Queue: 2 jobs
Job 1
Amino acid sequence: MVLHQGQEFLGIVSSRRDYKERDMLVKIFTDRFGFKTFYVRGVKKRGFRLGAIILPFSHGRYLGSINDQGLSYLNLGKEIDQYQQIFQDIFLNAYASYILGLAEAGIKEDSSLAAKWFGQVDQALTLIDQGFEPSIITNIMEVQMLTLFGVRPELRYCSVCQNPQRPFDYSENYGGLLCQKHWPLDPYRLHLDARTIYYLQLFSALDLKRLNSIKVKDETKQHLKQALDTIYNDQVGIYIPAKKFLQEMNEIKF
Ligand SMILES: [Zn+2]
């Protein structure tokens, strides 16, 4: 067990829970160490000085001691901000928690994956916080994060013959798009409509940092959600607690 003291890193508070009487375990997605759990002492004591930097959905620059295994420790935070809208809105909260849950399942404590993905997760949460449609931002992240789980669907052309001509359908068995000629190969293809396929293609190549606006019809939103739920259930098969909550919430909403 090695404790690396005086480490500076970017972080996003992803979850927290009470620990013992006055302490707290705070999970932070860091850009250098992946997801680490920090033991924060004396949270409920008067005069506790780290309160503002460990609020849910806080993000910014932190200083702390990182433990290779086991709990890490926080010293201070600098330039700490909070995704305010996400913090205040239970719906946005659920989407953000799900994105962080996916990131945690795929990245864990892998430093190089953390470095690669931190900016993108931060950008997704920033866009949701700024009022971009949370279900669409979540779908974009779902498509792009498939690679974290070893799923690399071919979305450029037919995965059998490389034909780039529409129409396409999506086949889990063939790992991506099928052109019309090859539809008979897979009776279990997802039978997606052209618009849904178009957005899956767009999302896989989209740079969130350059997203200015995006409008998707309600019907297509539903189809995208169904398609990605199917792909995640069948091909990824991980359990993200926030997903269940998100599903229940959407049932109430619609
Ligand atoms: Zn083909």
Job 2
Amino acid sequence: SHWHSDHIGAASMYGAKVEIIAHEITRELLARFPDPLRPLPTVTFKENLIVELGVEKLELSYKGANHCPGNIFIYAPKQKVLTKIDIVSPGSCTFMHCDASENISGWIEAHEQILEYDFDFLVGGHIVRWGTREDVLTSQEYFRDMQTYVEEALDRMCSPEGAAEFFMTGPPEHYAVYTENWINSMVNYVTEKLIIKTTSNGQKWSDRLAGVTTNTKYHAYTLVESNRTERSHKGYQKRGTGGTDYFI
Ligand SMILES: [Zn+2]
């Protein structure tokens, strides 16, 4: 699926005569950072590749960076099994920082892309059971709720006036302390709102997904930062509107 060693770190045990199929970016990364335990892919593709062996068929597809660059969708149409690793961890709110992902806009988008497949079973990685569409929808709802609170936090604390309350409090040599307090205040706002929320089925998030009480604050940090760097926020990143050049 992708170049991370927690998924392909034992690939070398299959020997040198095995065909290894991956995205071309996966090959590029493994060539750049060589690891004898992760041999280079022998077949690569850019957008789509169909693999057929006898009566079995796999449809491989790349839709852009999400968890990491080169992370592909692997679909078995006959069995209706989709393998998409490190996006949804069925039954869990997933590992810290959106499963230690790189492109958070792409990672959020991947939930939609998973749901575009006609699948009955999702192999998501890092969990002891497979997932269903319901698991994907639940994970999507959790991160949509979080996004709502991230936008509220940015509205309150990322405006010039809101941020000034953190930065105009003392001597400039303490700038790093003000920054930490500013970011953590947004993260704490999002975390508290999400944990106390009564969700769409009447339960708390901690009743619906494992890891909510421990991992929400890490996801909140990642989502706050991805909103600040990857997404437009009501003119926040649009020059000339809202007087927001201060934060760009
Ligand atoms: Zn990974």
